[in-house]
Amino acid sequence: MQVLESPLGDTYLWEKLKSELTVEEQKWMQYCVFEGKTIVEIAEQENVTTDTVDSWREGVRKKLLVAVEKRGGKGNSVTDRCDRI
């Protein structure tokens, strides 16, 4: 699966994060962030439970927070967005 351009507004951060995501986490990014699908829609499409999709989301969230901290950013728009995903 190929995920489109950076949804984070920081190409370096996005490339770093993308390299650490599992295939399932990349699917969540593609479907939710880029295509605007809900967890229920993703679960139906992937034939998994909503809890499974939510675990993909949580994996992305945790990895994003770590990547932002390593990049030296705290309390910026990226971490604010992370609180909403």
Automatic annotation (TrEMBL):
InterPro entries, alphabetized: RNA_pol_sigma_r3/r4-like, WH-like_DNA-bd_sf
Gene3D superfamilies xrefs: Winged helix-like DNA-binding domain superfamily/Winged helix DNA-binding domain (1.10.10.10)
Domain of life: Bacteria
Name of the molecule in the record: HTH luxR-type domain-containing protein
Naturally occurring in which organism (per UniProt): Virgibacillus phasianinus
